[in-house]
Design brief:
The complex is a heterodimer of chains A (about 750) and B (about 160).
Chain A lengths: L1 H8 L21 H5 L7 E2 L4 E3 L5 E4 L9 H13 L6 E4 L11 H4 L11 H8 L10 H28 L6 E4 L2 E4 L5 E3 H10 L26 H5 L15 E6 L7 E5 L2 H5 L4 E7 L2 E6 L2 H10 L2 E4 L9 H10 L4 E6 L2 H6 L3 E9 L11 E7 L2 E6 L4 H12 L6 E5 L13 H10 L7 E4 L2 H6 L7 E10 L2 E11 L2 H9 L26 E8 L12 H21 L3 H8 L4 H13 L10 E10 L2 E12 L2 E12 L6 H20 L5 E2 L2 E2 L17 E6 L17 H13 L14 E2 L1
Chain B lengths: L1 E4 L2 E4 L8 H8 L18 E4 L2 E4 L12 E3 L12 H8 L9 H14 L5 H7 L9 H20 L7
Parallel strand pairs in B: 1-5
Antiparallel strand pairs in B: 1-2, 3-4, 3-5
The structure holds FE2/S2 (inorganic) cluster (2 copies).
One FE2/S2 (inorganic) cluster binds next to loops of chain B.
């Protein structure tokens, strides 16, 4: 760790590997080094594009496919500039290497290709930080992948021009061919690839104008769908290798607890199909002939367990409520003079909100397959970060990262849960007991649900100063655990962070778009037994619920329409205003609804995109039917509208599930919920109709995987208020006796 | 014992009580059928047994002996994709895709039994979980698949293998 820190500050990063012009550090350097990793036959034009003699274009997509569509949207960006049909493109996921790092995370801003890499971007390339998450894939790729495609195109043109002794200006690329416009000559890319691979890459290629796009901005069919309808798509759990063994494991049953001993190793090892009980410091695994034998064996383990002396019995919500009353750990926003504005207000209203822990419950339970062979290892898994896969295998086996080969499969859902190393490290530890034999470790659904890094339980207190028919100021206090703080501590321990500096705890709360005289946000934090992490939309998932519910409360208090009050306060935010107005128009906000139907509205910006939603419900006694959701998004320039639409639907269902049913609770020191029967999901029956409208915008792209989630809970509870006068300030709705039909 | 999967007979040397899901996945390496919950609550493990959609994670393999087992790998052998699979592509249903084998098998069985299901029929029969929330496209695809099947019967084309 020390050595790495030295390298970074010592400036070595700036030399050798990292030399690059205009930020294209790897495009024309070290091609050989980065092209041998699963890209198949042919010649590499850069680290991302390889073309075979028979014209197959293989692209390395460095983001993982977890349903959000990156194995289509990123190839679209490359294909657009490379001038090839998407059907010619084959996707591979590369090894964990510098060119494939997600540099958006370095500064939380897209890189600037004219001015080259910033110091942090160099650090992230050097590590390298290959990571998918934070709805950053398109933000990180929009310019970069078009440049990658255009660079390859210009190299092909240069090679053809040389061949024909023509000028490059007289040659152009179209549909997988280079043409000479003077004499009509043409060649396939495949014929030119070898020569093109030896051409010098342009410093910065010429990119197409948006008006010339043939692929980007249009609803291309997903490249992964055919494999996902005939059962051939390979997820981590589908990896099958010769002589493979299957493992399952038990984690400590107490939160923050420990397994002290196993009382019946011999008995379990004598069960049919069982090979071995493997005790690792994080739990007890059983390796067996099949998953079923392993599952049966872990159920038979007789374990001695110990609670954590202080933490296990510490209750989250009551502890958080207590710290909320004390001094905050950090003030995150302090615009204007909030105390004076509150003092002088005609009326002050205050509301307390709370949300529970939530599990990710990816459809595919966590799993990882590892083969240890002497001082080498190979790993197969669906993980959001190949960096974490290497770290996990290396930590678990002691094998150095250069000797580990990764195979990143499709992910059966990620939602932030797969941006962790735990399942990889545990599988590696178990597999290191079986050198030469691949071992697939699965967390059973029950273990998956009980050993999550949950969306934190959070409490908040919002206070508004009202006067002249307006909201004059808002004071927002929040108490919780830091999801990013914990995620970094677990997975990137050499970049330490204080819990109060976790920007995700107050994201979407400290930066409301509404114009007021004063705005204030602070955060209190605390150590609690339940581990937390990044859950689809992270801090936004609860902060939108707090702020957009409270906006509704303020509107009601002022006797104003919840749409109108937002509109009045968005004077400085034209993009928000466009979304809001479009939303009011498409939902017919001003119209009367039929008897028994009610609506609620919410607006929230996250991950660079602005999303507004109107929810229509019918309600009878406490039976709620969510009839319809109108959703408007401005995510900047559009890559694939069909994927944006499906991500909005997906994000809404994810948030709706949480708002209606979602709750992970702890009783007697143990997580209560086990499996889907007690962690309920929206299904066909409870699914509303969702109508999505995408604003055509010229802004730099924002994310789409997460921004659909935050507004749905407040839009729904605001509709419940409209229907019943019941202001639901804690989730889920099921806790308040509501049922869903 | 022997089981017949997608028309092929496999000898399997396993305990009678082993759930069919794990025999398919871990013994026969037919991994299209998925494990989601293990308690018959999510539908990821749905296959057809003598044409009936069945969750296999709690079904002892012995109960499937002597029956026709069809998995997702078996519905598109010839002459191409099934009507349901084609509709799934038309509507671009899958996201992560993990639940979709089970969804498709449940829908195939629904349409075998009820060629033109109403929304209520769909809600009653398709109780599988999709954590990615693809339900809206699933509903649209079911209706398209129903049309494909009705048309292919009208033109005397086989709708599935
Ligand atoms: S795995 Fe069988 S129903 Fe979920
Ligand atoms: S597509 Fe991911 S669970 Fe259904």
């Amino acid at each position: 760790m020390k050595r790495r820190a030295f390298l970074i500050t010592g400036g070595v990063v700036g030399g050798g590997l990292m030399v690059g012009v205009g930020g294209l550090s790897y495009v024309n350097n070290k091609i050989e080094q980065f092209s041998g990793t699963g890209m198949g036959e042919g010649h590499s034009l850069n680290a991302f594009v390889r073309i075979s003699p028979d014209n197959i274009i293989t692209v390395a997509v460095s983001k993982t496919e977890m349903g959000q569509g990156v194995y289509t949207s990123i190839p679209m960006l490359i294909a657009e500039e490379l001038e090839v049909d998407l059907s010619q493109v084959k996707v591979v996921h590369p090894q964990c290497e510098g060119p494939y790092a997600n540099l958006f995370f370095a500064n939380m801003t897209p890189r600037d290709f004219e001015n080259g890499l910033t110091t942090m971007e160099k650090v992230f390339s050097f590590l390298p930080n290959v990571m998918t998450g934070g709805s950053s894939s398109i933000i990180d790729s929009y310019d970069h992948m078009r440049i990658v495609g255009a660079t390859a195109r210009e190299m092909l043109i240069a090679a053809a021009a040389k061949d024909w002794d023509a000028k490059t200006e007289d040659c152009y690329a179209d549909n997988g061919h280079i043409h000479n416009k003077l004499n009509g000559q043409w060649k396939y890319y495949g014929e030119l690839a070898e020569k093109a691979s030896k051409e010098k890459a342009p410093e910065l290629p010429q990119l197409k104008a948006r008006s010339e796009f043939k692929i980007v901005g249009k609803p291309s069919k997903r490249l992964d769908v055919p494999d996902k309808v005939d059962g051939t798509a390979q997820f981590g759990l589908d990896v099958r290798l010769p002589n493979m063994k299957y493992a399952a494991m038990r984690h400590p049953a107490f939160v923050a607890g420990k397994i002290v001993s196993v009382n019946n190793v011999a008995q379990v090892e004598s069960m049919p199909g069982v090979d071995k009980v493997v005790i690792i410091d994080e739990g007890v695994a059983v390796v067996a002939k099949t998953t079923w034998h392993a599952k049966n064996a872990i159920a038979a383990l007789d374990l001695e367990e110990k609670e954590h002396p202080e933490l296990t019995r510490k209750d989250a919500i009551s502890s958080l409520k207590k710290v909320l009353e004390g001094e905050p750990a950090k003030v995150w926003e302090d615009e204007g003079d909030i105390e004076t504005v509150l003092e002088n207000a005609e009326k002050v209203i205050t509301s307390d909100y709370e949300v529970p822990y939530l599990a990710h419950a990816c459809m595919e339970p966590l799993n990882c397959t590892v083969l240890v062979n002497g001082d080498k290892a190979e790993v197969w898994t669906g993980c959001q970060s190949s960096t974490f896969v290497l770290n996990g295998v290396s930590e678990g086996t002691g094998i150095s990262k250069e000797n580990i080969k990764t195979n990143i499969t499709y992910l059966g859902g990620g939602f932030g849960r797969r941006s962790e190393t735990d399942f990889v490290r545990k599988a590696a530890k178990v597999a290191s007991n079986f050198p030469g034999t691949p071992v697939q470790l699965v967390f059973t659904r029950e273990e998956d649900m009980k050993n999550d890094y949950y969306r934190p339980a959070v409490v908040s207190r919002l206070t508004a100063a009202l006067g002249n028919g307006n909201i004059l100021g808002m004071k927002k206090k929040v108490a919780g655990q830091g999801p990013l703080f914990q995620m970094m501590k677990r997975n990137i321990p050499f970049m330490p962070m204080n819990q109060e500096d976790d920007q995700m705890a107050t994201e979407g709360m400290r930066d409301l778009p509404y114009k007021m005289d004063a705005a204030y946000t602070d955060m209190s934090c605390i150590e609690l037994p339940v581990p937390v992490g990044t859950w689809r939309s992270v801090g936004h998932s609860q902060n939108a619920f707090f702020t957009e519910s409270f906006m509704d409360e303020c509107a009601r208090e002022l006797g104003k329409d919840p749409y109108e009050i937002r509109k009045e306060m968005l004077g400085n935010e034209p993009r928000h205003l466009d979304v809001l107005n479009k939303l009011a128009e498409m939902s017919n906000w001003k119209s009367e609804l039929p008897e028994g139907k009610y609506r609620g509205i919410a607006l929230h910006k996250s991950f660079g995109s602005i999303v507004g939603q109107v929810v229509e419900i019918s309600i009878q006694d406490k039976n709620i039917k969510v009839d319809k959701v109108f959703c408007v998004i401005d995510c900047g320039k559009i890559v694939n509208p069909a994927i944006i639409e499906s991500q909005m639907q997906s994000g809404i269902v994810y948030g709706l599930t949480a708002a209606l049913y979602g709750e992970i609770s702890v009783k007697d020191g143990k997580v209560v919920q086990n499996n889907f029967p007690d962690y309920q999901m929206v299904t066909m029956k409870t699914m509303p109709e969702i109508v999505v409208s995408i604003i055509d915008s010229d802004e730099y792209p924002g994310g789409v995987g997460e921004p659909g989630t935050p507004p749905i809970a407040p839009a729904l509870t605001n509709a419940v208020f409209a229907a019943t006068g019941d202001r639901v300030r804690s989730l889920p709705l099921a806790r308040h006796g509501y049922r869903f039909v | 014992m022997e089981i017949k999967v997608n028309g092929k007979v496999y000898p399997v040397d396993v305990e009678d009580s082993m759930p069919l899901l794990w025999v398919l996945r871990d013994v026969l390496d037919l991994t299209g059928t998925k494990y989601g919950c293990g308690v018959a609550a999510c539908g990821a493990c749905t296959v057809h047994i003598d044409g009936v959609a069945t969750r296999t994670c709690m079904l002892p393999v012995s109960a499937a002996v002597g029956k026709e087992i069809t998995t997702v790998e078996g519905i598109s052998t010839a002459p191409g994709l099934s009507a349901v699979q084609r509709a799934w592509i038309d509507h671009q249903v899958p996201q992560c895709g993990y639940c979709q084998s089970g969804m498709i098998m449940a829908v195939e069985a629904l349409l075998d039994e009820n060629p033109d299901p109403s929304d209520d029929d769909i809600n009653g029969k398709i109780t599988n979980i999709c954590r990615c929330g693809t339900y809206q496209r699933i509903r649209a695809a079911i209706k398209t698949a129903a049309q494909y099947r009705i048309q292919s019967i009208a033109t005397d084309q086989p709708s599935k293998s």
